[in-house]
Amino acid sequence: MSTRFELHPAAPELDEEAVVLEGKELDSAILGSTEDGKLIYDYDLLVEGFVEQGMSHDEAIEWISYNVEPLMGYGAGFVMCYRK
Fold it and tell me: Is the N end or the C end of the chain the one with fewer CB atoms within 10 Å?
């Protein structure tokens, strides 16, 4: 597993608890970071990234729903942005 410093250019400024989803296809889903060092992910771009990794569109949505979004409820170190 890569360290957070190897995964994103903003990593030195990230909180130790920041969630960094691995895979170069997911890097394009990163919009930036918050002042307290959490990455900000774009939901739609995250879906596209998982599709690029080989999932179907529906599989990507389901995977994010069950494996990524619940982490926010536990105070995990990332923010998800949803388009209207």
Answer: C
